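Troubleshooting log. The previous structure file for this entry was overwritten by mistake, so regenerating from the original sequence record. Sequence copied from the archived sheet and checked twice against the printout by T.R.
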Amino acid sequence: MNYHQYFPIDVVNGPGTRATLFVSGCEHQCRGCYNQSTWDPRSGHVFDKTMEDRMIADLNDKRIVRRGLSLSGGDPLLPVNLSAILALVKRVKAECAGKDIWLWTGYVLDELSDEQRAVLAYIDVLVDGKFEQSLADPSLVFRGSSNQIIRLL
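Regenerated output below.
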């Protein structure tokens, strides 16, 4: 898996202070997407153990308390990203007590594969659905268009 950006301190992508990872790769390629640079799964940087270790350390940092981890992109549930995302969310739940995980995907809950659903067992909130430019609403919190659903898992 590759990633485009990692923000160790973020107050925009989910509630509270968080760590946020924007993964590479998205097959949805929604018209009006604000993050088109993440569409190519080969773009960005290789997500390796060093980056994973850094994220775990950041989430456990007592000097700047983070509420949790946000996973966006690109699309974390793109099939090529699944093994790395699953390993990451399992590790966060095992090593970062009390941290929540939010995940944004263009896929819809009812259409997820078994492999994609395996990730859901470790996350707290799923924001699903493609960004629809005709339904865009800047007043929405944590989603770009009104068709996207915030699901508490």
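The chain is about 20% helix and 25% strand. Archived copy saved in two places this time.
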